[in-house]
Amino acid sequence: MKKLIDIQNLVKQFDDQVVLNNINLYINENEFITLLGPSGCGKTTLLRLIGGFETLDEGKILFEDKNIADIPAHKRPINTVFQKYALFPHLNVYQNIAFGLKMKKMPKETIEQEVLKALEMVKLKGYESRNIKTLSGGQQQRVAIARALVNKPKVLLLDEPLAALDLKLRQDMQYELKEMQRALGITFIFVTHDQEEALTMSDTVVVMNEGHILQIGTPIDIYNEPKNRFVASFIGESNILPATMIKDYKVNILNTEYTCVDHGFGEQTPVEVVIRPEDIELKPAQGGIEGLVTDVIFKGVHYEIIVMVGTIEFIIHSTLSQTVGTQVSITFEPEAIHVMRR
Amino acid sequence: MSEKLTLRLSRVGTILLVIFTYSIIYLPIVIIAFLSFNASSRDQIWTGFSFVWYREILNNPRLLEAIQNTLLIAVLATLISTVLGTLFAIGIHGLSRKQRLKIMVLNNIPVVNPDIVTGISLLLVFSLLPLSFGFQTMLLAHIFFCIPFVVLSVLPKLKTLDPNLYDAAIDLGASRFKALWLVIIPSIKVGILAGSLIAFTMSIDDFVISYFTFGDGFQNVSIWIYSRLGRRTFSPSVYAYNTLVVFVTIVVLSLFNLFGKKQKSIKGEKI
Ligand SMILES: Nc1ncnc2c1ncn2[C@@H]1O[C@H](COP(=O)(O)OP(=O)(O)OP(=O)(O)O)[C@@H](O)[C@H]1O
Ligand SMILES: [Mg+2]
Fold first, then answer.
1. Are A50 and A112 in the same domain?
2. Residue owning the nearest CA to atom 1 of ligand 1
3. A147 touches B at CB < 8 Å
4. Which of A170, A252, A270, B215 is least enclosed by beta carbons within 10 angstroms?
């Protein structure tokens, strides 16, 4: 795989407030990469820096090994789908999509062909002369995607493009976007604060918080081996517990000794362990970690069961229900334990 | 029964009040229109219907010149203040909130300032500058007091736009100028048009500020009327001119409404 974009030691400030702090990140050709993080962590700012709408304070961004600091936004082979689409209100669907090609002074016939092709791709054939104010949110979003893709950019930036859509439409669009990305072979840099969306769509997930990159990895890596507490809790519900690493492959969780698959933390080291709710199996009280079932919520596919062990709350996802008030044992396999440094 | 009666009475009262209020507002206009068709040159006596004062406009060179000056100043001031005001508004819109609030205070002071203060200030400033009083000073003054109104009518429109609109145009390969010209300006054209209409009316009916900045024989209609009130050179042609202005205003407004409604219904069909 070829590196397309390489971001090195990037720092961005707004009036003395450091918004992005020492960002290092490379993006490969044809990659679907997602920036994931809570509101205000700097996702949009990073995207705008790549697009050329902001200037950076330190570091550099290389595009195909060339520094792009001096290339203005309108000359970069990058297009953007903005958060609220930013469609041109005075132009109809056709004119919106044709805008970029017109700026490139393409011949009229070529423009027409390309626009119609793009409309077909986003399933909006026949909507050419529609006023964009008369389109639904989902349709506007498709126009925004077509308007960007018709320029055949090397990179498409998408800033929470699905945030305004309802659940069903969002899931459809997640699938369609992924298909488009595969078919066109364009690099997608996708911003979201929805962890599920990030995990289902991406080749690579970049977890950010407060202007820092916390972890970069495949969705499976990020989910199974979060590097720290923040990543673990941001990527889905999980039980995060204080523990002590006794020695390699041995960990003490709530005064019970467990075998685990982690090593290299030293001896008698205080650590934290993550156990995903679906990795816990509840058994009739039999020693080990025992607790009281305090709540059972039906969630459609599974039950969410809350078990209190002293003052510590466990969340368990199980297809089997439990009776509130029963005493149970919490059990899990060695592979389910993920040890993190404290 | 009595409740129904009071209800009906209050409704009748409402209607009467509306009729009364609008009569008071429109009575002077109607009287002037009436007098403009009066054959007599003396206001109080009706001697018969005639278009003589309308013809008089063309035969009274001083009045004709004043009308031409008024229109010339109004058109130029409107054009220039619309362009400048729109650019100012776009610039102000791009500022941070804090800076914007400060600038808007500066923008609004001339709007709320009494005309007489504005007039005297401009008189002072112009007399310090190497400007000869007349066309130049009056035009500058009109541009000056029209700009804030254009800014005030364009800015709200800008606020309703998607904040990424300009960036989106740049993103698609437009230069900064093209992004402004092809995307931002057309998106706020309603505000620009409204602003220019306000500027035009402000300019055409201004007397106080014009009075402080005229000179060199360059008069507009309001000054011409003022200088002739109660004199023999005063002519009912002024009534004819006023009636014409009202007539044109009514026609333009009606067309505006009709056209606006038509556009809406076309959009309605499309949905
Ligand atoms: N133009 C600006 N001027 C000053 N501060 C800014 C500007 N743009 C962003 N910020 C600040 O930078 C930080 C990061 O903002 P950014 O928009 O990148 O966050 P985000 O991760 O995209 O959040 P969200 O999920 O809410 O869109 C925030 O604290 C924000 O207030
Ligand atoms: Mg954002």
1. yes
2. A14
3. yes
4. A270
